[in-house]
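User: Can you write out an input/output pair for a complex, sequences first and structure second?

Assistant: Here is one pair. Inputs:
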Amino acid sequence: MEENKFGKDQSQYERPNHPYRCGRAILWQTPCTRGPATGGACGGTRECTPFLKNDRWECRRDKRFGGPCEEGPRPNGECCIQRPACTPHSSLRIIRGRVTLLVLLAVIALIVGSLGLDSHFNGLVSISDAGPLSKSHIKFTEKQGCNACHQVNDQGISGWVKAVFRPSNLSDKCVTCHSFGGDSSVAHNNNMLTDKKVSKTQCVMCHREHSGTSKVTRTLSSKQCNSCHKNKFESFENGHPEFSQKYPYFSRDTIKYDHSSHLNKHFSNPKFSDKAPESCVACHTITLSDREIKPGNYETICANCHNNQINKKELIVIRLPELLQNRIDSSKLIEACNFPETKMEVEEEFLSVSTEQPALVSAFLLNFSEEDPESYGKPLQDLIMSMAEESTTSFAELIDNQTPTPISENLLAGLNPEVMKRAACAWGLNREYESPADPKYGGWYADMLEIRYKPAGHADSVAKSWIEFALAVATEKNVNGSESRAVAMREQILSVKDGVGGCIKCHAIMELKDTKGDSYLTVDWNYKNEKKQPYVKYKHENHVNMMGESSCSSCHVLNKDEGYMASFKEYDSTNWVNNFKSINKKTCMQCHSEDEINMECQACHIYHLKPGFKKNMLAIKAEPIPITP
Amino acid sequence: MTITTQERPQRWDEPFGSLMTDADVERLFKVPEISGIEENKFPSHCSLKGILKNDARIIKYSAGDIVIREGDYGNSAFLVLGGTLKVVLFPGLPADLLGRTTLKKKTFWQALKQLWGYRKFPEVRNAKKIEGEPLVREGQEPGIAQVFLQDVPTVLDQNKTASLGKGALFGELAALGRTPRTATIFAETGAELLEIRWQGLRELRKYDEGWRRIIDERYRKNALTAHLRATSIFSHLEDDELQKVSDATLFETYGQFDWHLTYNKLQNQDKISGSKDEPTIVRQGDYADGVLLVRGGFARVSVNRGNGQQTITYLGAGDFYGVDEIYRNWKGEANVGMRVTISAIGYTELLRVPSKIVEKHLFEEWGKQGKAERSTKKTYKSSRRLQDSIDRTLSDGALLEWAVSERLVNGTQAMLINLDSCVRCDDCVSACAAAHDGNPRFIRHGKTFENWMVANACMHCADPVCMIGCPTGAIHRSMSGGMVIINDDTCIGCETCANSCPYSNIRMVSINDNEGHLITDPQNQKPILKATKCDLCADQVTGPACVYACPQDALKRVNFQEIGFDEQTTGF
Amino acid sequence: MNKQQGFSLPRGWGYASLASLIFISTWAWAVRTENSLGISDFFTGWVLFFVIALLALFGARKRLPFLPLGPASRWLKIHVVGGFMAVFMFWLHTGEVWPSSFYGQLLTVLFYAISISGLIGLLMETVFPSQLTHTKMEVIYERIPKELAEIRNEVEALVEECTKKNASSVLAEHYLETLRWYFQRPRFFMSNIYGSEKPQHWVHQQCMILERFLNEKECKYLDKVYLLAEKKRKIDFHYALQKMLKTWLLIHIPLAGAVMVMVFWHLMVIQVFFV
């Protein structure tokens, strides 16, 4: 009969919580029945503890372990079955507990140890470094370490504890070097919503460090833009508002250049076709350009065709008009002009050599009506006399009197006093002045009955000054009520066809309002810079590089409407017609749409207002180099 | 090395009633039922006086006090010395009136305290408590909840009751049969009772003929009626009807009462042929000549399958079989025989109510009272369940087949481990140890079948044979909960229960003192032993710690009958 | 009783659904926070912390089996599901698979190590039990030395008896040369882990090669020795698998301690430097 190995005498309880196991079991021998003693010593060195009963030693081995043995205890009272002691081993539970403790201590030691090493092995085995900084920040923070941005590490542990309770002000540290067009803690660095309360922004909302050397910012996703903007939309294609009506042309040009007439008419004219630009990029350089593609300067792109037009249009400052009587003192004249003493034929009847009207410039300066010889006779002849005697002085005075600050220097730049004297001397004798040669080199000259100015070329400063003068004086309150004369002069000077230099043919005049609310006219000589849209970015270069140089017209479509040049007749620059049709969203969407190209907000928009750097960034590094002779 | 010793405990070290005096015993001899006993029939080590003094006690009850409660497991019988008592027959008192209390479980904080009770040595007992003194609790009787009824007249009004007067003997059924009390008995007037614990009753029955006759007769008579009353189909019968049924009932026993003694022998036999030797009660196909009610023990229910019998379920105490067949017969269906074979496993006590009686008193009554439909529905339902069990595949029924042949169906809380889920982590053993002061109370080994193991943990059997021989009553059924528990303080280490348990689930341990030294008997230096076994964590908040601690859900405490019927618990 | 026929939901599916829900909600909330220019790392970090703490509490629960904290099987389901969720939550929180800082790398290495060890443990706990059951025998791990010693003694007794009775030393010689190594202690550890049939083949071969050298009587002894060798082989199998099942925790739990230390360090550093 097979022994019941589950029987009460055959099998005893297993005690998994007992900390020791018999050492014999580890060696794959039969473990003793008693098991290790609680202190960890071997418990099975002997089978039983013999009992002395009536002078006889009796075996007291438990029945479960075999009952009393046959031999019985030794005469001296020792158990007969003895074995050498084993080395009890810890149970698996105990080992597990020890290993756990060991690992815990190891990790804690690693942390504590690494804290001590921090300064030497910056970042390499640092236990508190959150990762490498971005390329731009990594160098200058090396020395200071974490303290460069985080306010910690004051005095070791106490510093850390303090830091826990102090609110972190990382964003404040950023502006030590970074500057913006406005407050750094406001959305878009611009306090746009003054009536509403908006939360402050922090740099760390979008910019995260410790992400590795290649990254600085996170990619701001379009969804995040939606978090503040009331006008929320899904993507560029779905929901982005339409571009403004006039986009991207927000104001009237300052230089009147009719693309359509040029492209359609002038360039195909056989007279100019060899000089005509081949494509848009001949005038507009797109390399290194962003949003704005300015055309080249006059010399580069316009001079070829227009240069010869400029010096053809001259300014007449003084003209000998039809005079009714001679008021000029001939003796003074002879003295002034250094005539030889010959008898001057005094005619009984004065017959003016000129039948013209005086120049409008003179009419304005001397304040007479140019149609009325009665009114202009004396002042003009006085002027001629003073011209003969003092040449330019009096004329200059006249000019200077017109404006608060004397500007005759600008207006009469290059005027050789001889010109005025000689002309005056001739006119005083009621003769035409004959110029010795053809005034083809430009500048001030007198010819026949006029003193003229011939502009030398483009951006002639005298011509410019006269135009500005004309614009300026037409608005000033003329005490003498001679506003109409100023206006007449202005009209002449600013005439598209006849104005001096033909400047106004291309340069537009605009009406502006001054601080008091009065309107005034002005001309902006320069190419008008595009309105600054600080939050918009557009790179022409990338687009043209990709689409080809002849792709301009895919977005910039000529406006067939003829009103472009006509709108310049109005000085009010708010009403204008653009040469090109506005660019609308659909144009961009040809490529920037759902299935095609990147439509992220940041593709076209910048969040920050004029991001830049503060001087102190370099202040510590750069020292002024003393200039020594 | 210091040796701790303790006097070997004796049987009557702890008398049943600490207040019993010789004078009380003398008084008892005046009681007719006692005076009729022949004293010289009792051996010297177990004298009548000794029994009366140590295994019996006199208790006084006030009017309204409840003496025994229906459903409690009781270990004693009562002899009325004076006063009147009432037996509540039907419908019975609700639980709150009976003042039922549950076993006191530890509170959360007490449970938490166990964390600090980590012991370095196994099986530590507080030696100071037992050193030098016999195990006597002074001045206090073991806790009897003196529950009393609030409103006796109402109880009497609402319930059928019977009266008991002087000289009446009751409670011996439960004491001797290891079964719950069948009725609640309370004192109508002030009463004096002699309570005899069953060890004393056993001796009285053994050595005195008069007592034996009374006990046996009453056993048959009352037990029968009580049992019938408790069975659902007969429960609503009127008294006289029930009496007629009872009179006609036949009492049958099969197998041996002490089957556990031959159990081990059976283990080594060929299981297949062994089962053929089981005494057959009814055979499949036989004419259904009565309803079979199982009074005690177990009966195997099987069907013919090829050359053998397929076990489909088993019947335990309280179960019955045969109503459906008789009903169909009565309805007029032809050729209705027993659908199953019923045979005795180990020991079976049966009651057989003849079919004519059933037809007359049951079916006709159902027809008259219009209960036919409801009642037939019930029988239909149970017969459907039976059919499902019969239809179960061989493979599904294999575990039950095995459990029945191993007599594991005796257990109500068998520890079943699914070896396909068990990762052998021993968390169950650790938890058991943690819940018992560092000492585990089971071993994770045992009989296996396919991927199931029934581990050697006490199964809290329906028929706890371990309780039979205990001299002190240390091993007992708890008052509430029904689990079998060993009272460590009163255990004398005689190993009777451990030897009795057929499943080797009780183990003896030698105990140590607080320093870890063996506690031995000073006289012969043999170590003091205590019997230990699973107590189902009766005092733990969480219930059985083993189940609670298994991370794989691999360990469950099961009653095989429930697994047998419920198809849903196949995989756990 | 067989396993249920047909489809049944894997155990712990309820927890898995709940965990997925929590993870997805956390992710959604994190995305929402980022879109509103908040810093989602704090939120995801705390969620991750609580998940890790819950995982760690399982260890505590195992040491308190008598407190009513819920059955251990429920805790294990939560632990496994939570472990998977923690990995995804980790990736959600860090936003990357491998960080660039030393201490971040240390934390990540420890975290991955414990996750992988947990995964391997889970795999073992799923696969090994049924393999052990299929050996048709059970042995308690702590009793293996005793069992092996008994087998060894029995084999040696058989060999001795055979040698004495048959005056032939072939069996004894072979035992001393080859079989003694085998019976000394558990062998073929790795083969048993991989489930290879090598041990079976070895035992069969080493016993069968003797056949041609033994007579009938000796063969009877050989058969008994073979049976014992097979029994020992099964015990070896139990030893290997049960040892793995017991010792993988020796890696998992110390790592848990290390991870917790690093997590607390991480919390400290964040509080000091960033908050």
